[in-house]
Amino acid sequence: MKRLGIIVLHVSYWTMYLILLLLFLLALWLGSRAIIHKNFWQMAGYSPGWILLTLPHVLSFYAFYLLLFPRLLKTKRLLLLFVSGVGVSGLSALLALLISGVFYGFRFGPHLSLDTGFEWLFISAICFVHGVLALVIRGFLSWYEDIHLKELLDRKNYEMELALVKSQLNPHFLFNTLNNIDVLIQKDAGRASLYLNQLSDILRFMLYETKTAQIPIHQELQYIDKYIQLQKLRTAHPEYIHYFIEGRAGNRLVEPMLFIPFIENAFKHAEKKAEDAITVRFTFTEDKLIFVCENKFGSHRDASDGLDAGGLGNNLIRRRLSLLYPGRHHLDISAENNIYKAILTLTYAN
Questions:
Q1: Is 246 helix (H, G, I), strand (E, B) or coil?
Q2: Full-prediction pTM beyond 0.70?
Q3: CATH, domain range 214-347
Q4: Facing residues of 283 across strands?
């Protein structure tokens, strides 16, 4: 929790205490008989009396909050915590009585009375209650900070994993494409130049556009189209891949490189000489985006190869989707009849 939030919490706590204290004193004033020693009630009308009503409780609260919690409760030394808490409460009450005695001409000493002992016990008990509440508040803040820290670490870990995968993915794609273009230069320099420009656009997208949290969906589709065109260099079969866009994408935003791991996985494991080896389809409706990517894989491959291979890996993909689209996505992956199929449905936020 931020510092301002903690300050507001403490101010609210003591404001509530003062309100309850005033209501308590009002009830005593309206009551037919005093339930606390009359000297204690008389002191409540003067500034020295408020020392007994505030100082020991503040001292006890922050002694529990700043000292006993980190040193004893977090280390689970509960017996020592209880003994120390009783001691802190008693000393806080005694200190307040002595300070108050200065203003009252040392009414409390050296001739101590039974009434004074009762007041000390009463104040000590309330100090102990404040101390316990301090432990509860500090425990809640510690629990909240632990959750926030865990979420932050999970986020950083995810970002590091994603950055690592990207650093491994890009050079692999780059070198394969450069080799294909190099071969094409000798056969068709014009096409090679076109593909080289597309490669330049793809690298520019990877280096700059992926740094933002979200991009327009049409930019992602342009990147995918150029990626597919470059991958077609690996095969001469005109019907090797089918790429469809149904509906209007509009101005929707999407996280960059959200779909490319599935497409890369399809190119990696599809049969190289098969017809209709890969199908990629985007379907846009008013409230949903449905992405389908499927590829044929040979019977000699095990189905689990496709499920775990390529791109970010299914575990990291699912983690990313859960983080970016909590409750607004559905991912279905199957591998049956030599066809590996991934269907991702994203529901737009209202």
A1: strand
A2: no
A3: 3.30.565.10
A4: 246, 290
